User: Which sequence fits this backbone?
C-alpha cells in the first residue's frame, strides 16, 4: 500500500512489539520522517480543531468526537519538543489504537506506507539525556531515506495522555 488513502486497521488491532515493525506508516514532523507500526493505526483523518480540556498538559490539544467515541488529541511536535507551526491543509490526525481505547496524534504530513526488511533497520544510537529517546526505537534506512521508527503506543500512553484518556472516558 503506497497511497495516502484512509487506513482502517480496526479497533481490535493488537499493539505491535517494538521489534516487530515490518510495515510502517511514515509521517513528517519538522521535515524529518518518522514511522509507526501500521498495526497500531486505526485511521488517518484531516485535522479538525479539538474541544480543549482545562488543565491538560501542553501537548494534549483537547478531545475529538470520532463517530461517538471521544478521543484525546496529542500534538507530536509538542511531545518531541519541536517548535509549533500553524495547522494547515496538510496537517493530519493519525488515530492510534491502544487496545480498547484510541488516541489521535497530530503530525505535519503523512508520506506513505513502507515495507521494512530486517537489514534496513538499525538500532537507535545511545543518546543519554534525550528525554523522548525511549520511544524512538530504531532507524530505518531505505532508498536514500532515513526514517526514525517510534514506539507510538508507548509514546501516546506516556505522560499527559493518561489525563486525557481519563477525561475522554
Assistant:
Amino acid at each position: 500500500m503506497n497511497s495516502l488513502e484512509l487506513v482502517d486497521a480496526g479497533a481490535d488491532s493488537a499493539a505491535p512489539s517494538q521489534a516487530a515493525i515490518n510495515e510502517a506508516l511514515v509521517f513528517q514532523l519538522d521535515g524529518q520522517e518518522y514511522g509507526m507500526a501500521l498495526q497500531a493505526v486505526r485511521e488517518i483523518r484531516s485535522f479538525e480543531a479539538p474541544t480543549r480540556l482545562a488543565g491538560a498538559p501542553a501537548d494534549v490539544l483537547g478531545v475529538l468526537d470520532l463517530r461517538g467515541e471521544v478521543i484525546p488529541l496529542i500534538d507530536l511536535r509538542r511531545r518531541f519538543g519541536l517548535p509549533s507551526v500553524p495547522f494547515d491543509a496538510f496537517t493530519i490526525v493519525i488515530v492510534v489504537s491502544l487496545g480498547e481505547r484510541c488516541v489521535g496524534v497530530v503530525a505535519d504530513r503523512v508520506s506513505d506506507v513502507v515495507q521494512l526488511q530486517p537489514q534496513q533497520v538499525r538500532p537507535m544510537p545511545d543518546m543519554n539525556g534525550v528525554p523522548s529517546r525511549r520511544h524512538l526505537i530504531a532507524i530505518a534506512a531505505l532508498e536514500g531515506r532515513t526514517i526514525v521508527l517510534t514506539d507510538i503506543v508507548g509514546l501516546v500512553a506516556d505522560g499527559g495522555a493518561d489525563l486525557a484518556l481519563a477525561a475522554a472516558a
Remarks:
- The helical segments are 76-79, 152-157, 161-168.
